[in-house]
Amino acid sequence: MLWIKYAHVACVILSGTGYFVRGLWMMYDSPLLLKPWVKVSPHIVDTTLLASAVLLVMQLRLNPLAHGWLAAKVVALVAYIVIGAIGLKYGRTKNIRVTAWVGALIIFGYIVLVALTRQVLPFAG
Fold first, then answer.
1. CA 90 to CA 100: how far, in whole Å?
2. CA-based max dimension of the chain
3. Contact of 84 with 100, CB cutoff 8 Å
4. Cα(37)–Cα(9) distance, rounded to whole angstroms?
5. The whole model's pTM is what?
6. pLDDT digits over 41-74, tens only?
7. In the chain, at which end, N or C, are there fewer CB atoms within 10 A of the end residue's CB?
């Protein structure tokens, strides 16, 4: 089971770093965004991330409905996906994309903090 946790954490780091870098490239209109590996690798990393999360939840027998922090992560994940997509692809203007990109990074940070603290409000002491 420990290898699943390590795989999950590695994918979190890869996913967050990849999103951050792709956002910088978007702001500077980098041609790197058009490279096939840049378009494909996030799907591989995020699928592995989600699969490892499901495996961890199943092995630890955690019910997202019974654990508020886990439910908060799921809700935040959906928000991250939607706002993240606006940030990199669907925002009509660069201003909208940059704002959504920053918002998605904040949500990503929240998800990580909730995972580390197992608290819905990780700053609430």
1. 10
2. 45
3. yes
4. 22
5. 0.93
6. 999 999 999 999 999 999 999 998 899 999 999 9
7. C
Number of Cβ within 10 Å of residue 34's Cβ equals 9
d(C-alpha 109, C-alpha 20), whole Å = 12
- 51: closest CA among 79, 12, 81, 88? 12
DSSP string, 45-100: HHHHHHHHHHHHHHHHT--TTT-HHHHHHHHHHHHHHHHHHIIIII-SSHHHHHHH
Give pLDDT tens digits for 100-121.
999 999 999 999 999 999 999 9
